[in-house]
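new request in #modeling-help
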Amino acid sequence: MKRPTIADVARRAGVSKGAVSYALNGQPGVSEATRRRILDIATEIGFSPSSAARALSGATANAVGLALCRPARTLGIEPFFMELISGVEAELSARSYALTLQVVADPDAEIEVYRRWWAERRVDGVLLCDLRTEDRRVPALEKLQLPAVVIGGPEHTGNLAHVWSDDAAPLVETVEYLVALGHRRIARVAGLPSLQHTRVRTEAFTQVCRRAGLTEAVTVWSDYTGEEGARATRRLLSSAGRPTAVIYDNDVMAIAGLSVAQEMGLAVPADLSLVAWDDSPLCRLVHPPLTALGRDIPAYGAHAARLLLAVIAGQPASGTQDETAHLTPRGSTAPPRSH
Amino acid sequence: MKRPTIADVARRAGVSKGAVSYALNGQPGVSEATRRRILDIATEIGFSPSSAARALSGATANAVGLALCRPARTLGIEPFFMELISGVEAELSARSYALTLQVVADPDAEIEVYRRWWAERRVDGVLLCDLRTEDRRVPALEKLQLPAVVIGGPEHTGNLAHVWSDDAAPLVETVEYLVALGHRRIARVAGLPSLQHTRVRTEAFTQVCRRAGLTEAVTVWSDYTGEEGARATRRLLSSAGRPTAVIYDNDVMAIAGLSVAQEMGLAVPADLSLVAWDDSPLCRLVHPPLTALGRDIPAYGAHAARLLLAVIAGQPASGTQDETAHLTPRGSTAPPRSH
DNA sequence: CTGAAAGCGCTTACAG
DNA sequence: CTGAAAGCGCTTACAG
C-alpha cells in the first residue's frame, strides 16, 4: 500500500501543497469552503502528514520522552509507574503526541539518553521521574534547553517546570491518626534515601513524632522491593520493644510486611497496625485490606503531561502542586492490643 | 544550544556530507582512516543524526510501536506488561531503536492507531499483544503491510510473525500435580474469554480433567482484576461441593482468592490449594507464598523485539516458540485435609 | 575513494 | 485567497 502524501491530496483537491498544509494546520490562507474540501479528501484517502517531514521542517517532533531508571523487577511490580504512564498517555494521545519510552540503568545513562534524544530531535520534551536530592539530570536538561517537567519537587528542580505533591502532610496525618488510636511505638520502612521525596518524608516523620512526644520513632531504609520490605519488617519485629505500628513508603513493601507479621504469628491489626503509602488495588487485595495513603496517580501523570505541552508551546516554566495524598483507613489499623 | 548537523561534522573533517554519512553508517566509500577521523569528530561535537531527516530520506524511523488495550487500572496492577516492556526495551535500545507506547480503549481504536502510525511513518513495525480468537487487528496489519510481530499464537496469527508460549502443557502439569496430591475437585478462574490464550487453556483444562476422571472440573470467567477474582472465588467457595483447589489465570486474581479464603476462615493450603499463573514477585509477597506457573517475561519481550527487528530488516515472517511456563510449588498447595 | 546533486514530504515566507 | 520555491538534514545513486 502506497502511503498518501500531501501532494496526493493537493492533486485531488486541485490546489497547491501549500494550501493543503494551511488547511490541515488551521492556518489562515484558505477559504473555509476549500479547507472543508481538503480535509474531506485527506480523510477519504487516509492521509496523515509524515511525522518525519513535519519534524524536519522545523515543526515539532510531536513526541515526548520518558526515561525510567529502575531495575526491571521493581518496575513491573509497582503499579505506580504504569498508572503514571496511563495518565500521561491519555493526555498526550488526545493531542496526537506520541510517548517514547526508554528504560535506563542509572542517572548517567539517562542523561546520555536525553542528549541523544535532543541531538536526534526525537522528542520535543521530557518528563523526569524519581527526583534526587543532588540530581545531575536537572542541570543537564537545563544546559540542553530541552523542555522538561520534573515529576516531583518543589525543591531541587532548578529552573525546570515541575508538578509535585505534598509528601509531609500525609505523613503527619498518618502519625496523628496512629497516635490517636493509642500507638506510641511507630516505625517507618522508607524507600531509597537518595530520592528527594524520601528525604521530605523522613524529615516530616521525625518532626511529627517529636511533636507527639514519641521517643522511639525509628526509620529503617529499604528499596521498594518486597524482599527488602520483608527483611526490614523482620528486623523491626524482632527488636526489643518492637513497634505496634509500621508505615511503609510503598504498597509492595507493606504487603510483604503483612506477610512477615502473619509468618511470625502476629495478628494484624490487633498486634500490629500497618499503613501503606501508594494506595493501589494491591492494598485491597490482601487480608486484611491495608489502610493506605493514596491519590490519583493517572491524574498526576496527565497533569505533568499537560504542563510539559505548555512548556513546549513556549510558556514559562512553573511549579504546580497536585492533589495531596489522603488516608483511607481499612482493616490493617486498630488500637494496639496492649493499650 | 545549537544542535550539530552532518554539515558541521563534514566541515571540521574537511570532507563532503556524503562521506560523513557513509562513515557513520558503516558503508563502503571512505577509507578507514577517514572513517575513524569522522567518527571521532562526531563524538567530540556530540553529533547524532536527526531521526526525522533520516526517516525522511527513506531510511527507517528507528522506532517500534506498542499499543496496550487494557483499562488503566488493570494495566498498572499486572506486572506482566511492565516486565514485557522492560524486555522489549532492553533489546530495542541496544540497537538504538525507540519504543513508542500508546494506551488504547478497544481493538478498533488500536487499528486506528496502527493506521496513523503507518501513514505518519512514525514506526517501522509494531508488537501486537492480547491476541483474540477473531482478531480484526491481524488482517488490518496485513493490509497495511506494516511489519508486525504477534505476541501470542501460534494460531489466528494470519501471515504475521509471532512468538508464542505453550499454554496447554503448564495447565496439564498443574492439574496432574494437584491430582497427585489427592485433589478431585479442581476449579479454574479464567481470564477474558475473548483472548486466544484463554481458549487454549480452557480446552486443555477440560481435556486433562476428563482424562484424569474428574467430573467436577469447573471454569468460571473473570477479567484479571482483583475484584472479579475475589467474586469468582467467593462464588466457588460458597457452592455445594466446593473445590479443594483453584487455578487462577493470573497472579492478581490468585492473591485476591487467597484473601477471600482467609476471610471465609479457610486455611490455605490445608482446606484449599491455590495456584497462580504468571509467577511474579507478588506471589512471593503474600503468606503463604503462592505456588505458581512462571516463565521469563522480559526474555519473552526481548525475543519478540528481536523477531520484529528481523522482520523489519526484510526477513520472512516466522513463528517461534518461547519457553514454556513451569510450576514452582510453594506454600499454597498441599494434599486436601479431607483426603 | 570523494564531491556535487537530487530527493524524501512537509512548512512557511514571498510574490502574485 | 493561491501558487511557486526554498529549506529542514539526511541518504544515495551518479560522476569524477
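bot summary: Chain A has a mean pLDDT of 93.
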